[in-house]
């Protein structure tokens, strides 16, 4: 079997036992998980991963595909000695987490889905992703996605957490145009993975910002209902005053939900 190129990983929280693997959203990198990881219970290991083309992880010439992203996450962690893990993803990271559960179910001991959805893009959303990918490639800048903090953060954050806007913008500015374009095309090509949740029997935590406009609470309820059909242990946490960046806007509430997920996985 061909070995994939390792991704950049960092232990955002040092600990032991079954680790949490934290997968970031678009167009960001593992730094978005740092505040949440910092308030996890002592002794919890949390591994941040830069997905392909983001942060310090390179593209490797593969066609745009979240299945390839999942393969590289799996191979990177196995090579680092991680036999299995609780995989947690925000938005795009949630798409990759579901792809991991689909492709490597024995690796994913628990699943955290934060501000994400299990369904595929609409035709309109898919076309918009491809339009942005083309614009970024043509301009060779990330200007086309610099306005995203306004959509990612809640209305409450716009008034009470203004400091988050320049932070997110700085993270976006540090991404490569090639990585942004590749990722948009990979997300546009993803399938509906609701069926993965319908047969996933390990513990699941679904977390959503109450003001999330991109993956609203109805999408979280859809995922939780799908996971419950498998008869597993499923929780749904709605984070008040948070938008599409709940771990950044309210790290403590998200950390509590993830600590509870880790406890439930350990107990099973």
Provide tags for this entry.
Rossmann fold, 44% helix, 12 helices, globular, hydrolase activity, AB_hydrolase_1, hydrolase, Alpha/beta hydrolase, alpha/beta, 7-stranded mixed beta sheet, AB_hydrolase_fold, 268 residues, 17% strand
End-to-end Cα distance, whole Å, is: 32 Å
The H/E string reads EEHEHEHEHHHHHHEHEHH
Q: Roughly what percent helix?
A: 40-55%
Backbone shape:
globular
Pfam family, one: Abhydrolase_6
Domain AB hydrolase-1: 20-257
GO molecular function: hydrolase activity
Keywords: Hydrolase
Note the topology.
Blueprint: E1 9-13, E2 15-23, H1 34-38, E3 43-49, H2 66-79, E4 85-90, H3 92-103, E5 108-114, H4 123-139, H5 149-152, H6 155-160, H7 164-173, H8 177-188, H9 194-198, E6 204-209, H10 217-228, E7 234-239, H11 246-249, H12 251-267
Parallel strand pairs: 2-3, 2-4, 4-5, 5-6, 6-7
Antiparallel strand pairs: 1-3
Helix pairs in contact: 2-3, 4-8
What can you tell me about this protein's structure?
The chain has 268 residues and is α/β, with parallel strands linked by helices. It has a single domain (9-120, 191-267), classed as Alpha/Beta hydrolase fold, catalytic domain (Rossmann fold), CATH 3.40.50.1820. The protein has helices at 34-38, 66-79, 92-103, 123-139, 149-152, 155-160, 164-173, 177-188, 194-198, 217-228, 246-249, 251-267; strands at residues 9-13, 15-23, 43-49, 85-90, 108-114, 204-209, 234-239. The protein has a seven-stranded mixed β-sheet, sandwiched between helices. α10 links the parallel β6 and β7 (234-239). The longest helix has 17 residues, at 123-139. The two termini are 32 Å apart. The model has no long low-confidence stretch (mean pLDDT 97).
